[in-house]
Amino acid sequence: EIVLTQSPGTLSLSPGDRATLSCRASQSVGGHVAWYQHKPGLPPRLLIYDASNRAPGIPARFSGSGSGTDFTLTISSLEPEDFAVYYCQQRSSWVTFGGGTKVDLK
Amino acid sequence: EVQLLESGGGLVQPGGSLRLSCAASGFTFGSYAMTWVRLAPGKGLEWVSSVSGKSQSTYYADSVKGRFTVSRDNSKNTLYLQMNSLRAEDTAIYFCAKDHREGVVINFYFEKWGQGTLVAVSS
Questions:
Q1: Is B100 in contact with A45 (Cβ distance < 8 A)?
Q2: Alpha carbons A82 and A80: distance in angstroms, whole number
Q3: What is the mean pLDDT of residues A72-97?
Q4: B33-58 confidence digits (pLDDT tens)
Q5: A77-98 in b/e burial notation, b at 16+ Cβ within 10 A?
């Protein structure tokens, strides 16, 4: 099973800050990574697929990069609605999710 | 507008069974693979099972293989998850999710999710 390790576990930031979230795979997954945003009581939301493609309706402040084993989700300037938990997911070998990074208010 | 509405969750004793349903609307249901993902208390998301659009292919996580069965009725636009031999570790919110792209092959990116239904396994 491919293990995805997300870091940091928690990121404490302020609105307007840049957020950089990391996802590392235990073996190469090519570019087959997606990122999701999840807020309590709401369904998860697909942000990025195939490592760097924004899903429809996702603001340009969200961007993804990486390939192989190392991936990054960047939020260029945090908006109040961006405080949430973010998960990476791979589909290269079955499906696994990372443990999540919580972005909270500093 | 795409809508997914799960139902069927509840409290069940260890060893018991439940059947979850996911009613879909707003898209051509039979053209998309569908997936169940769960979120256990204090843990992250876990993929559970996927089924292709015409039910040609089904896939399961090792943790549920042999106990859970995924199915769909395209005439009713509904996805199901039959859960047998439930364990305490199956306690979670169960989400159904629509595949990112239509087609025969399962895409395994999840574009739209329901609100979830809570399954609690406890004596």
A1: no
A2: 5
A3: 97
A4: 999 999 999 999 999 999 999 999 99
A5: ebeeebbbbbbbbbbbeebbbb
Of the candidates B89, B75, B74, B94, the one whose C-alpha atom is nearest the C-alpha of residue B19 is B94
Q: How is residue A1 written in tokens?
A: 């099973």
Model confidence over A5-23: pLDDT tens digits?
999 999 999 999 999 999 9
Task: Check whether the bond before B14 is cis (ω within 30° of 0).
Answer: no
Residue A94 and residue B115: Cβ atoms within 8 Å?
no
| Distance to chain B for A91, nearest Cα, Å | 6
Between chains, do B61 and A94 touch, taking CB under 8 Å as contact?
A: yes
Say what the alpha-carbon torsion angle A16, A4, B111, B10 is, to the nearest 10 degrees.
-110
3-class DSSP state for residue A28? coil
Residues linked to residue B92 through DSSP beta bridges, in sequence order: B119
| A49 contacts in chain B (CB < 8 Å) | 100, 109
Confidence class of residue B103 from pLDDT cuts 50, 70 and 90?
confident
B34 residue type, one letter: M
